[in-house]
Amino acid sequence: MKKFKIALDWTANTNHTGFYVAKAKGFYAEMGLEVLIETPDMDNYSITPAKKVELKQADMALCPFESVVSYRTKTNVFDAVAIATIFQEDVSAIATLASGEIKRPAELDGHVYASYKARYEDEIIRQMIKNDGGTGDFKISYPEKLGIWETILTGAADATWIFRNWEGTQAAEEGIALNLFKMADYGIPYGYSPVILVSENCVMESEGDYARFLEATKKGYLFAQENPLEAVACIAPYVAKQDKNIDLIKSQKFTSGFYGTMDNWGVLDKNKVLEYLKWLSENKLEKQFLSFEDLVVSGLV
Asked: What is the CATH number of the domain that holds 35?
């Protein structure tokens, strides 16, 4: 039995349903795999999921694609690669309260953005503001990651990055109206998020094991698309206490449309990746040239 540990990017939510389904329904076991799913609340996000892979504390991490780029371009390079994506389209957006004064990105000038401190995040927000006609002169706060959503509810921050299928669903359940600014609407290409990050060397050494992991995971996500009620039953016991008010069925049905299909689940489209890398370069967020092959291991899904 091959053992794998995957470090998730957040507490259990519908971005992760396929992992929990694959485990609960025995899809991993059928592939000869024992999979441990680790969430960041276990250590209060003291170490990022990608860092856990670098430190060999986990075999895989769920994280933004920018983390792969970041590890490949830092001074002491780590051989991070993406082997699959969870979403074929962007499910995220920048959120502000509809009751507030910020109705569009340009109006973020002079206001506070609560940041996750990701590699390109703050500059992406700056560019979004500029693309909407603003100056990009805004304030940035770095709250504890697991408490960032609450900052816009309490007024500690004016905007933050959310997943529409999770915090967006939560807000709707609580009657909180949001303004949502999607990247694509402001000239910023989709940089796949989240992806499954691994060490390229580890994949090369155990390609078959990783391929079986992805086959079982894909089966879990496609099962969730067809059977939302059963899928929610698999993940519900692991949802954090503070998120118990979320309508998991509603969230799951919204999310499932972004997972992809039997033909393309998990696949990172080369043209989309290159478009994102080109955008990073053109906006001087990344100086080093990287190819698709440097960052993605294809063919395992």
From this structure: 3.40.190.10
- 58 and 109 both lie in a single domain: no
User: pTM of this prediction?
Assistant: 0.95
CA-angle at 47, arms to 159 and 22, nearest 5°? 90
In a domain, 113, yes or no: yes
Q: Which of 145, 143, 148 is nearest to 45 (CA)?
A: 145
Among candidates 70, 129, 64, 142, which has minimal Cα distance to 94?
129
The last residue of one of the domains, among 157, 186, 215, is: 186
In this predicted model, what pLDDT tens digit does every residue of 8-44 receive, in sequence order?
Answer: 999 999 999 999 999 999 999 999 999 999 999 888 8
Residues 6+ apart with CB under 8 A from 162: 92, 93, 94, 95, 149, 168
- Residue 279: phi and psi, rounded to 5, are -65, -40
